[in-house]
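> Could you send the ABC-2 type transport system permease protein prediction when you get a chance?

Sure thing. Input:
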Amino acid sequence: MRPAELEIARQWLAARGLAGVTPTPALAARLTVRRRARLGAAILPALFLVGTALVYVSVLPIRSGPQERWSFVVLTALVAGLVLGLSLLDRWVRRVDQHAGAQLPRRAAHSVRPGWRTVLGVPRAVLLASIYAGAAVLAVAALAVRDGAARYPAVILLIGLGGVAIGTAVQLRHVLTHPVVAADEGTLRADFLMRVEDAREVALPTVVWSLPVVSVFDTGLDPWNTGWLVFIVLSATALALITFRDARKALAAAA
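Output:
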């Protein structure tokens, strides 16, 4: 284990009120893999959006025919690649956690296993479900109202939304169910905080907010895209308020 990674682990513990906990190599390895996986999880959606945009632009001159049908096949492959990539990142983190747990001389455990209400929180869970439901409703409404090729962006949105929802569900399941990796009370607290941060990172709806960008290429700021912008602003504001509320609660608990 590199000294720099141990130092990062020490800083992570100190920033969360756990300066008295010794930064073990196992903890440093778990934090390191999470930093790298989060970087990958940020790059994958960006590549997905670029690929989706390229597919969409490629069929702009041709509104029907084999090329448009093949674009749906390519788009399905992009969605599958996104879900697979997120799953592989999740598996990478899980394997490092399993390896760290296997090296523990003994395991600590919570008297009552933290559930989704404790780890993710009811407000974030409700907001996440509302965002996916609202996105699906807007996409279906666009399909119902638009005609012909104008429906294509809504189809892209629904396919992408389904793929991202699957990836998010898989990641959240792992965060909530993976075994505790801790040997004492201090590392048990660190494991819990790591789980909370993992859940909140997975619950960020960044990709969902980005998906409608593809639609703007063709239709501009029509009423449906304007509705999307309002939806994004309202949900982003709600997320900011929840984050601010959680930060205030954390400060109050630390005091």
